[in-house]
Design goal:
Three copies of one chain form a homotrimer.
Chain A: H1 2-9, H2 14-43, H3 45-55, H4 58-69, H5 73-103, E1 106-107, H6 111-136, H7 138-141, H8 144-167, H9 189-221, H10 225-237, H11 239-250, H12 254-283, H13 294-313, E2 315-316, H14 318-334
Antiparallel strand pairs in A: 1-2
Helix pairs in contact in A: 1-2, 2-3, 2-9, 3-8, 4-9, 4-12, 5-10, 5-11, 5-12, 5-13, 5-14, 6-8, 6-12, 6-13, 8-12, 11-12
């Protein structure tokens, strides 16, 4: 925190300030994630799942809320979709590439991976339907906010319905895929609760700073709002998933790596995006609806269908990883121009 | 019939008359289905398949034809797509939900289910291609009727080619999935033929009445033509598949439930829709082409891709069922506004 | 060559000249393919793969380059997509149809087929992304050439990365699927090299002639540029894959047939199309970008998703073959009108 504070209060140029903020966000996101995991271990794997679903995206939620308060609606929309793309294409591609180069063809076919994938595809479909209705179905485009609200309520309802099942360890348990085996709890209950509270508070503070640092940095580098949200924020927000996934892939635990990576877009579609719709209307911030720009919808549709085919393939190798990164590269390039 | 006749000739309000007509249609659809099944049992399972393919959609065909005669082209188009959506999302979702809550994770992976799914996806692709050509390929949009006719002839040809294979029990047998095991024939041949003829005749009569009751009911409730076709008619027309599918799922026969549900969209794409194109032109009714509104095409594409992923997953649980119903809910909401 | 020369210099009508040119192209494509295979056998299966990837599409590359020099950009774009469609729908449909009628349900599920399919889907996605960005993302549509160049460089990089792996026989070996078992080398090294050089030279000559014969033939028959590229050139260019695939399917070697057919679209997306983008800009021919007309993108998306579902089904029968041909028929019909 000393270094980041230094950046904040020194006269460092806009880009450096933003980089510091991004690193601070990533570190706090990691701390929130670890506190949630340690806390969950006290109550069993089901509770971990519930806590992770509810609190794991807390730093991203703060960033998006502060950005909405600052009126950066297009940045937030791009960041939501960009986060799904970064997980399904970039992080997954890096996992396949590093894991494949070290261990050859890796298996990833487990019943759980396929069940999570089907749910992820269904949730993302519900997430983008208001966009599609708004583009091509004239009567619905006049009711964009209502339709987004209906879809958000349906998605959150689905999430809440799935919570009781997650509390019992079972086959319908969606979220405890994040829980890696063989990692004993090391923190005391008090430590975990206190660290979680502190990390959450700090995340709120740092997110505000991150959003303030974003606009000067965008101006300094001259990148578009869409590119900033889609690539920069999405990669900063998913840095930890990235590192964890690659570590697991290098340890040849590709099944766990895959479950971690595929679970994140599910949480975004099922919790984060619907919550933002409801909170932005409740708090009176800039109206955030589920009507994304067409290229975002096209990109996420391609990413979701690709990753479903990869799950059903059941094997990965490094060339598939390289191809996923290639698709991500082409999509990111499309958004380069403002 | 006494009750329905009562509704028809009494001064009951528009909505009640429509509800009576809808129930009468559903009951007659069930009677036609059972007569066809009983008749088919006399000639072996292959013949059942052929008869069901040819006659099973008779009530829906009558409704659509009478609606076209009344000039309700948009209602019919929405009803065709809505029928596919209702089967693939709503009925399948209810099967997974009820079956999953009672029996936990259910298996549905059989070679037959996957073969039917592949054919269903291919047929629906051929069905929606004229729409896509009409939106995005300017030269084709001037020849919408010719292109629809070409696609319809190709689809019906494909259906007729598949009939001889259905007559022999074999692996390419598409339709006898409807035939549940352990249900002995109980009706005599004469009973089956007479009941089928009567049911078909009554279906024609009741369909006419259903269409007449539809317009005042739409006006009374204030729903749009698209919503009436997509949701109301589609659910009324598939009430029986709904009940049968859920019963099978509750009896833990999820493989049969799945085959029943996935077979219906195949029949619609392969027989019902192409037949309507040809009959509407032959009989001089309002021109029915295969150019559906874009939101209908988008919705059916999502539904078809979802259900293919679910088939290839090979397992279902109640949360997947809830997610399917959620996607159906968002699609239906999009069509609420006229 | 005597016959083709005769056609060229006699006063035969436009259509006959074009047919002669098409047959000559198909024969030379076959000769190039066989020379490459014989040459590769000297150096092991890995080298065959590399040579086939690099040289196998040589005749198609010549045709496209000469057509671009003649300014026929739309014909070339349609031919690129048409070649993918012809392989995935028509050739595959004919393989399933003939193989299925002779041998019943055929298995095609091998790990290799699924790995190639996933790569093919990813490459085609990267290939069509610049088109999608150009239609729906306004800022990108002003930078169509740059974005196409970026995507082409990424695709060629992916291809070059995969070459070293292809040189070692291994599980990531993409291309040696073309190598059928039990066919001993019969030509000497010198014969193979000389024949390859001669065939390549003749292919360049004949391709030039083919492009010159195309325009009068199009005018004579009155077909549109899109139809000529999508159907006529694509079928002429893939005549050999067609014959080889059907022969393998009839010999009940459906796994090999499938790998041959699915490998061709991968090569087109990974090598042929990106090379055309770079060469057309380097040689100063008519600018060829990766922005295809929307109906081409829609058709290729449907074909790619269909064939992925079929690969993951793992079985084929003749009705699936007929349905694939039906989808091809509807797509080809859409492009009939200019």
């Amino acid at each position: 925190m000393g270094v980041t504070a230094l950046c904040h209060y020194s006269g460092a140029p806009a880009l450096l300030a933003f980089l510091c903020a991004a690193i601070a966000v990533a570190l706090l996101a990691s701390l929130v994630g670890r506190s949630v995991e340690q806390l969950g271990d006290r109550f069993g794997p089901g509770a971990t799942g519930v806590l992770q679903s509810a609190l794991g995206n807390l730093p991203e939620l703060f960033i998006c809320l502060f950005a909405l308060r600052a009126g950066l609606v297009d940045v937030v929309k791009a960041a939501i979709i960009g986060s799904i793309l970064a997980n399904l294409l970039l992080v997954m591609g890096l996992c396949f590439l590093t894991g494949g180069l070290k261990h050859g063809t890796q298996k990833l076919d487990s019943n759980r991976a396929r069940a999570i994938t089907v749910l992820m595809v269904l949730s993302v479909a519900a997430l983008v339907l208001p966009s599609l209705a708004s583009y091509v179905h004239t009567p619905a485009s006049d009711h964009e906010e209502t339709l987004s609200l209906v879809a958000s309520v349906i998605l959150l309802l689905l999430f809440m319905l799935s919570l009781p099942a997650s509390l019992k360890k079972g086959s319908t348990d969606l979220s405890d895929a994040n829980h890696m085996p063989g990692e004993p709890p090391r923190w005391s209950l008090a430590t975990a609760v206190i660290l979680l509270a502190m990390a959450a508070g700090a995340a709120a503070f740092v997110s505000d700073w991150f959003v303030h640092a974003l606009e000067p940095a965008m101006a300094a580098v001259g990148i578009s709002e869409a590119f900033a949200g889609l690539v920069v924020i999405a990669i900063a927000g998913n840095a930890i998933e990235n590192v964890v996934g690659i570590q697991l892939a290098l340890r040849n635990q590709s099944k766990y790596a895959y479950a971690v990576v595929i679970n994140s877009p599910l949480q975004i579609a099922l919790v984060l995006a619907p919550l933002l719709v409801i909170l932005s209307q409740t708090l009176g911030y800039a109206a955030f609806t589920l009507v994304f720009s067409p290229m975002l919808v096209v990109s996420v549709a391609i990413a979701v269908i690709m990753s479903a085919f990869i799950t059903f393939d059941g094997e990965s190798n490094w060339i598939e990883g390289a191809a996923l990164i290639a698709v991500y590269g082409v999509i990111a390039s499309s958004f380069w121009w403002g």
